[in-house]
Amino acid sequence: MGSSSKKRRHSSTEGGANESKEERRERKRLKKESKKAKKHGSGSSSSSAHDNEITPLFSKRTIRLSVSILPYHLGNSSVKGSKNKAVEDFIRQAYLLKYSTALKGILLAFSDLEFENGGYGGIVQELPHIHYTVTCTALLFTPSPGLYMEGVVMSSSGKNSMGDRNSIPDIDETDGGRHFHSHLSVIAYKYFNASISAKELRKSGLEFDTYSEQWYRLRQDEEGNQVKQPLASGTKIRFQIDQVHEYGGFVSMDGSNPLVIE
């Protein structure tokens, strides 16, 4: 008797005995958004509509986001379109160039911002922010294992401590930087980090020269002799994505099956 009466009293304080199913669901949704906003300072996000795939790595789609701005932006008449600008700034800070689990990718650009619910926002419990639901057209980078991508080789900051480089006359002396012996660093699309392990590099016929501290491949010169051709910084390379790692919104990738693009 005592426990059931406590449960009834608790239910009545939460939403009322005559609360409909729809109202309960809406209250629970707002409560979850409130917790997320307290933790991250932002609303939830979700994607809608079907992907408009540009390439397997990029897609253009309409997405729905929950954003939060301060009331200051509503009354700041000195800034034209201040509410829109505040929402756009929020999206840039919270989502742009960061991995989003809800979007299943990285937001690269957005346009065609529109407000839902007639442009009206809501206040959740004691939080000072005004919460809006908006939609926009988004360009997303969506890497996943099995896909192929291209990048350029990056050198490490290591110094050569292995002695005289003149002892290996067949090495190409082009200033290509130095590499780590454990992996090859690659930058894809001038922004995303990837690495290819020594094991995968050797599977593809590449070897590491300990004197020049460079990964190289054997090539034939005009006379038919085999010479070492290092993978100089800036060399274009194609590889397959093995794993995608995410931390704090930033991603890095492990690759395999590297192929130098001539």
Explain how this protein is built.
The protein is an alpha+beta fold and 262 residues long. The protein is built from five helices and 14 strands. The protein has helices spanning 2-14, 21-40, 72-75, 82-94, 198-203, and strands at residues 45-47, 52-55, 58-69, 99-100, 105-115, 130-141, 148-154, 183-188, 192-197, 207-209, 214-220, 226-230, 236-247, 250-260. The strands form three sheets. Strands 1, 2, 3, 4, 5 and 6 form a six-stranded antiparallel sheet that branches. The longest helix is centred in the first third of the chain and has 20 residues, at 21-40. The termini are far apart.
Q: What's this model, at a glance?
A:
The protein has 262 residues and is of the alpha+beta class. It has helices at residues 2-14, 21-40, 72-75, 82-94, 198-203, and strands at 45-47, 52-55, 58-69, 99-100, 105-115, 130-141, 148-154, 183-188, 192-197, 207-209, 214-220, 226-230, 236-247, 250-260.
- C-alpha termini separation: 80 Å
Helix-strand pattern: HHEEEHHEEEEEEHEEEEE
Beta fraction: 35-45%
Summarize model confidence as the mean pLDDT. 76
Most strands sheet: 6 strands, antiparallel
SS content category: alpha+beta
Number of strands: 14
Low-confidence stretches: 1-17, 36-50, 157-175
Backbone shape: elongated
Kindly provide the radius of gyration, computed on alpha-carbon positions and rounded to a whole number of angstroms: 27 Å
Tell me roughly what share of residues is in helical segments. 10-25%
Treating each run of at least 4 consecutive H or I residues as one helix, how many helices? 5
